[in-house]
Amino acid sequence: SAEPARPAAPTAEQLAFSLLAKPSTERVPFAGSGGGLLLAVGSGGRAALVVRGLEPAAPGWSYHAWVVSADERPAYAGAFSGRERASFLNAPVPAGASVVVGLAPEGRTPSRPVQPALVATRSLP
Q1: Residue 121 pairs with which residues in a beta bridge?
Q2: Residues 76/113, Cβ–Cβ less than 8 Å
Q3: Under 8 Å CB-to-CB from 88, ≥6 apart: which residues?
Q4: pTM of the model
Q5: Which residue pairs, CB below 8 angstroms and at least 24 apart, start in 68-71?
Q6: Which of 41, 38, 45, 87 is nearest to 62 (CA)?
Q7: Nearest 10 degrees: CA dihedral of 82, 83, 85, 90?
Q8: In the chain, what's the furthest Cα-to-Cα distance?
Q9: Consecutive sets of 10 residues in the chain, 125 residues long: mean pLDDT of each?
Q10: Does residue 37 contact residue 30 with C-beta atoms inside 8 Å?
Q11: What pLDDT, on a 0 to 100 scale, did the predictor assign at position 51?
Q12: pLDDT at residue 73 in the model
């Protein structure tokens, strides 16, 4: 007997839009993105970047994200091309922290945020 087909696991994009749909999700536009990039943060600090018209990275380049808290070193949170509609961060974003996004050559993880950068800062409770 054939096993019933399992539903496909939700994509990062579907999970990000699910997060965005929750009334408790904090939405913070990135300064300098012209509305093209939005930070969506859930109640536990889990965060996604929602791409809404951001210029895609040029071939050989990618966007890199860091979470920067007032009292800690920047935490690398992942890379994305700008072509996807959403991307989850690999680090939580606590209240008062900023997410800094900048371009860097593909395949190289910069040790710190690069300039020019787009910045979104969560408000304190």
Answers
A1: 98
A2: no
A3: 12, 15, 16, 46, 47, 48, 49, 78
A4: 0.86
A5: 68/97, 68/98, 68/99, 68/100, 68/113, 69/94, 69/96, 69/97, 70/96, 70/97
A6: 87
A7: -50
A8: 58
A9: 73 87 94 93 92 91 91 88 92 94 86 81 88
A10: yes
A11: 93
A12: 81
Distance of CA 125 to the CA centre of its chain: 21
Q: Which H, E and C letters describe the chain, residue by residue?
A: CCCCCCCCCCCHHHHHHHHHHCCCCEEEECECCCCCEEEEECCCCCEEEEECCCCCCCCCEEEEEEEECCCCCCEEEEEECCCCCEEECCCCCCCCCEEEEEEEECCCCCCCCCCCEEEEECCCC
- In whole angstroms, give the CA distance from residue 119 to residue 30: 5
Residue 58 token pair: 């040029």
Tokens for 35, please give them: 């509305």
Could you check whether the bond before residue 116 is cis, i.e. omega within 30 degrees of 0? yes
- Kind of pairing between the strands at 86-88 and 75-80: unpaired
CA distance 107 to 98: 24
Number of CB atoms found within 10 A of residue 103's CB = 19
